[in-house]
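Journal club prep — side note

Before the paper discussion, L.F. wants everyone to see what a predicted structure for a comparable chain looks like in token form. Sequence:
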Amino acid sequence: MILYLPSSAAAVITSVVLLCNDVPFSSSFQVQTPPTSSSRIPPPLSATTKQYHDNDRIKSVGGGIPVIPSGNCLLFDPDEQGKLQGTGALSDRISQGSSYALQPSALYEYIQAQAQADHVQTIIDNDTTAAVPTPATTTTAAAASPLPSSSSVTYSTTTTDPPPNAILHQSQHWLEHLTPKTTSNFAKPSKPLTATILARERLISPSAPGDIQHIVLQLPEGMQYVEGQSLSVIPPGNDPNSKKGKKPYSPRLYSIASTRYGDALDGKTISLCVRRAEYYDPVTGNIDASKAGICSNFLCDAAPGTKVDVAGPVGKTMNLPSDTDTDVIMVATGTGIAPFRSFLHRLFVEETVVRHMFGGRAWLVLGVPTSGGVLYREEIDSMLENAQPGQLQVDYAISREMTNTIDGGKLYVQHVITQNAAEFFERLDNGAHVYFCGLKGMMPPIMDALKKVAEEEHGLDWGDKLKGWKNNHQWHVEVY
């Protein structure tokens, strides 16, 4: 039979399906490419074209493949939008069928040459035959300026300049297949695995109350996670309050503060944001060491190289929406910012497809007692500079230094939401996802504030409104 493969969206999809399903281009298929229109405007349907839409004719040839008029790439041009960069590789692959042979482009040759140059330089620097793997690279080029073919341009193995019109980005891509389902419960609390503390750093100024530390650990071999999950940490020793004092301490759950690639971008580390749990005697005002948090103090005092028993990861409710055009609202108090740091790095820092495809808006509301207690402020400031205009909004509720416009009292996260209630409700009604993370005491005042706004200002039934958001999986809460 004759298979017409015009350079249109439908034909491209059909061709890819055939290739992906390993359908051979045998002698029974005559591949023909009708002429295309230079103006990319589809010609009117002729009597000949209409017959291909005849259902009876399609059935008579065993099902067949319906085609559409040729001549346009209005929906999708593989050379310009599919990152083929003017090579015409897909058209060649379709027309040549099984006889097609991959022809490296100038850009491909450049990447290979650069990798070889890096490999040689590594050997020289390290005086060894072992080379550090070269990071993965993605490429994009100006759509209107296709690259020259490999037959016309040659790049030496020592070049440091990419081909014309090409833009190279270091990127992470090898962990994009991970999901909460594939990563959850790699290690169970009853059979924990060993992680290693690599580094830790105090996050807040000396003037801020308490102690909060950013802790980076090397993952056990094979353990992976995604943004929004949590890690169980089991402190060393036995619980003296357990039966005969022989039972190990129970696991403590910490929200993960890094993306799946980790702060080292190698996919082998995980970061936590940990507040040292301390108890102050109300009479003396001094710290009572006997009531200090076992796990948090262990982590905040641990030296690099310390081994830690961990389990998990766990969590399927605090993950980013799969639709990259969805707005994201994040409300945190204190260390509740941990999962949102991973969100923000994912959306505004790392060179991933998710970052470049993100078309929604992100809104962070962070509550802390003092300015010195604002967590990851330098990182957030950098993200605000790098984000597209209007794509990232950050509001701080610094309770001991700011006042709200509602009653003139201290400013807390619920006041920020109330003061921006119209925008909050509008975004959620348009499909935004909202996330809450922090101490469980944050939720009652937030719920009271939203209920009041819904009923008194919008005339809504708060119960029904909340139920609708939950049923649409737009409402995410993780408090402790």
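L.F.'s comment for the group: The first strand starts at residue 2 and ends at 4. Keep this in mind when we get to the figures.
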